[in-house]
Amino acid sequence: MQTWKMIEKVIDVLMEIMGKIGWILVLYCMIFGVTDVFLRYVLNAPSLWIGTTIQAAMVLMACFGGAYALNHNSFVKLDLFYARFSERKKAICDIITVVYTFLFVGVLVWKGYQAAMLSIKLKQVTPTGVPIPIYPIKTIIPIAGVLVLLVVIKKLVNDILIVMSPKNGEEQ
Amino acid sequence: MSIELITFLYFACLFVGLFLGLPVALGLGGTAVLFAFIFEPRSLLAIPSAFYYTPWNHVLVTVPLFLFMGSLIRFSGIAEAAYDAVYKLIGHIHGGLAMGTVMVCTIFAAITGITPPATITMGQIAYPSMMKYKYKRAIAIGSIGAGGALGALIPPSVPFIFYGLLAKVSIGGLFLGGVLPGLMLASFYIIYIGIRCKLQPHMGPAIPPDEKFSVAEKVRAVVNIWPFLILILVVLGAIWGGVATPAEAAAFGATGACVINLIYRKLTWQVLRDSLETTLKLSGMGLWILIGANVYLNIFNSLGCQELVTSMVLGMPGGQNGILVMMMVIILILGMVMDDWAIIMLCTPLYIPIINELGIDKLWFGVLFIVNIQIAYLTPPFGFVLFWIKSILPSDVTMGDVYKSVGPFIALQVLGLTLVFIFPQIAVWLPNMMR
Amino acid sequence: MAGADYGPPKKVTKWVFQPCFDSSDAGWGSGLVPWIKAVEEATQGTVKIQLEPAGAITAGSEAFGATAAGMIDGYAGWATVYGGDMPEGMLAFGMAMGAQNYQDAWVAMWGDPKYRIGDIVQKAAHDRNLHWAGWSCQGPNAAFTTFPVHKMEDFKGKKMRAGAPQALFHEAMGGAPVSMNAGDIYTAIKLGTVDGTYWDTGGIDDMAFQEIVKYAIMPGWCPAQHQEIYINLDRWNELTQWQRDRIDDIFMPTYFETSRLHAQGVKHALDVLKKAGGEVITLPAEEVKRIREKVISDVWPKVAAKSEGCAKGVELWKEFLTDMDQM
Ligand code: NA
Ligand code: NA
Q: Could you list the residue ranges that cross the membrane (chain A) (predicted)?
């Protein structure tokens, strides 16, 4: 139990770091979005790389922001019936549906790794005026998948603990 | 296994997961992976592919930026100023505060691309005030909900951007198309509140006669809303003045909100942190739903289900209007159980080939679509706006109260949808004028 | 090779193709569909191709890599889209102010053994587990502007929406290239955010550009823009020798057939522009030569720098243009 609390803490800290990276990405999009217009409209010297890097920032936001949001339970649920369930019932549902999550995120990691390897092999860059390498971004995708898996496992263990704990039983 | 059965199971599998409380994004992705595994394993590569190409989209950057702008504005206090102006100007007529709520929401809608900012802000400011003056919950909650939903219809609008991207329709044109239907609905709400409270003054009593304001006080109250006007000018002016694209205008709006908070001395570390946190949580979640929906559709196509759906819808009786009505009814029904992102991502790619086949104006269809999406925000049991309202109102307000209060407003939305359907000019007149 | 069993196999091979564009693009009806028909006929129905629009199975920008990885069997698109995955494609797409027309382009790429630039592209494709199997010329990728252009200097300081190679060209002209989503171009030109766009001439009416631009500047930055078709190399090798030979047979006839179809599309699009009150400005030969000299010194080296194959190809292109007395 003590060990688990520690592991849980480590995962939470990791997700907060992801969150901080996400903040920087949001600010990057804002500041450079305005800069791009300034360069084009005022200086008549449009940048050939800002737009592309903002797109890259959006992919990274999906990578880091996704794990962060999931850890904070911000993923929208259709909790029509679910909201009325007891803690224990909710945990049981979560344990059943985690199969979907493992399938999705598992394939994201597995196929994401293959896609990253292909991208490295092709030395993929953007077909833009200033070519931006794509392969580092594609390499981060399976890593983001692993981060999300950590959150999923954390939630799964907590659900199992709820189901096994007699205090939370519905009968009591 | 027949394609009909596979299609059915594909939808059934998704909904079983969702009803068991699985997050929408994971349900979409998980179902897609399962079916790809069984029927078309090589298409599994579509999963990392969608994870890359979905966010790799310049226009999508509007999502975090408009969210950031809305969050900041919530902390700036300028919404209070706007509400104060309404209170001093029309508080003395029956239902005035609720009508004013709709007006402030309409202005809010003109600077944000999504619904939560107006809903959350007005829920926090207008609701306590209306309760103080003995408004009935039905009017108070309904005006906040319906007003908040306008955020998606009046430009700028993230749902229009999604639709425009998928349907390849000019986003600027769609924005213009949403203006008149949005203003029309806002007037419907105001007229409804006015008549209802005139006939039943206990629904929304006028503020007591002893709370009178001088002309100077009223003028000052109106002048105080200048930051709103500046933001509108910055965002819409940047687009229509030829300075920036919609994506860049969102960056302008967020920067403008920062500057306004700075002027109001509200740009504390705490405010910045809270705003960034909200932005990232909602964007992270939203991007994952988009990715999930793309994965779901890519596999849907790989399995060959698209042709089945297209031929089914095209086979509807009643000709072109029959098909259109059918499409709208499907969105309405989906709207009861899903929300904007999911519906737009699911339906647009399915509908657009049909719309092209029939030669229907994609701009008009887009406006119909988003008016309908707006209804989805309010229709029970599942509506984003409903959940936002529930989450910010005092805990003695039950979900049942919320559901009951939105009924008349949903009826007005359906009336608006019908009018845009019968008179396409409401949607296409303004875009055609600007061409 | 041509043994006793050289002939149509009993087994029917089914392929799924997804290009980087959808059915509204000129490349669909005038390029890819005729090629597919020709393949199915030449192989006597032993190869059947199912065609999906961009976005159906994966995004247009991802389709090239998806074909290399075997997720889909075939791809069609422009090197302006897949150039980041395979820079040698630029040699096939068309160089800035390169070949004047499709006949010339054919000679340089395949027709004359002195150049055979196509072999460089094919080798690059094989290195990426792909086989180059189809080609089509779409006519000029021209400039569509709200300002007249009679000489190179008229581009100076003008903001033009431009993708990668277009941006390099526009910069060389002293202009300011702007990157922008295709869906935003109409509004941006209308409102004056940009002064025009580079675009595939045959496709301007699909984008309703005739409503917002005043001039078509011919022959644009690339007088002969091309689109390529690639097949996953494993799928290609799984065919019988007979099937492969039949598909190789139609490479050249479909090139000329579809290039003629595209040329008609270009003529039609320019008619639409003229009918809407637009003006087509064709730059005089001396001016084209001046611009060519400028881009050969400023833009071509950037293509050559991308890979060894590109460097070799650019040299061959130079040689070809010199021999044609266009330099
Ligand atoms: Na809005
Ligand atoms: Na709903």
A: 21-42, 48-70, 91-113, 133-153
